[in-house]
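Hello,

Our lab assistant flagged a job as stuck in the queue for most of the afternoon. It eventually completed. Since we weren't sure the result was trustworthy after the delay, we are filing this so someone can double-check. Below is the sequence as submitted and the structure that was eventually returned. Let us know if re-running is recommended.
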Amino acid sequence: MLAPLHTSPVHVPVFDALRDEDHPGLELRHTVAEDLWERARGPAAVADEVRARVREVVDRGARAVRCTRSAIGGVAEATAVGLAVLESTPRPTAAPVEEGAARAGRSARVRAVPAEGAWACFEAGDPAGYARRVADAADAVTGADAIFLAQASVAPAERLTTIRVPVLSRPRAGLAAAARLRHPAPRRHAGG
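-- returned structure --
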């Protein structure tokens, strides 16, 4: 079971759709903590509460917890158990990408590209306009080997892009990692 911790209910259908598409049967137990939204702009201000929420969902049986708000992801990762539309997103998103590349013996240079006007669409309750603006911003990128959609809410833009480099979304990768926890790849044994 994966327990996504969201700061907005808009992320629930995004994760449910990705689960249905890529990992049918993966149990998702969503926790929405809207009160963290404003305070999450400063992760230190919500660190204790994020840790408590993570422990709570783990105590209820979650094998993995996925924070869909980039600004609190680092706090959750410290708990022991790309393309952005908000200024608070690029650094918390770039660090894991760069660290993952380093672990794989590769280097990565992450360049943040704002999706101008996308956040206004989001706040106005226009998810189609929001996704379209993000996709348009992705399509305008030049000189990149891949595009990483930094926020959970922008995952629907992945299908709207026409750029010829891979477009990756954080929620899809998170669900794939959780599915691997649930059904790890079989181990190969040497010999008979």
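-- support follow-up --
The delay was a queue issue, not a problem with the job. The result is valid. The radius of gyration is 17 Å. The longest strand covers residues 2-6.
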